[in-house]
Amino acid sequence: MLDVSFRSELPDKAILFLDGKDARVFRRLLSELGSEDQVQNAMILCGLLAEIREGKELPSKMGVKEIESIFPEYVGVSFEEFTEILDNL
Questions:
Q1: Nearest 5°: phi and psi at 9?
Q2: FRET partner for 17 with CA separation of 20 to 30 A, picked from 2, 28, 43, 48?
Q3: Long-range CB contacts (< 8 A, 24+ apart) of 33-38?
Q4: Which string of DSSP letters, residue by residue, matches 13-70?
């Protein structure tokens, strides 16, 4: 379960709380990728890929190959390496 909340002392941030399986996946990805930013970037890019593959219109004209190609820059590993990590979770 995901829970998003906001705190008055952090007005420019949202806080995401993960429960159960989601938290375990996040922790495993964090140990594999090394930083929260890289895990977040991977989740965002995977979400974009899912939207494109489902045929939903996106504001960006980027395609699957372009998004897969930026994984090393934003995630620290190639898309293929990332899918291998997911397969081994």
A1: -75, -10
A2: 48
A3: 33/75, 33/76, 33/77, 33/85, 34/76, 35/76, 38/74, 38/75, 38/76
A4: EEEEEE-HHHHHHHHHHHHHH-SHHHHHHHHHHHHHHHHHHTT---SS---HHHHHHT
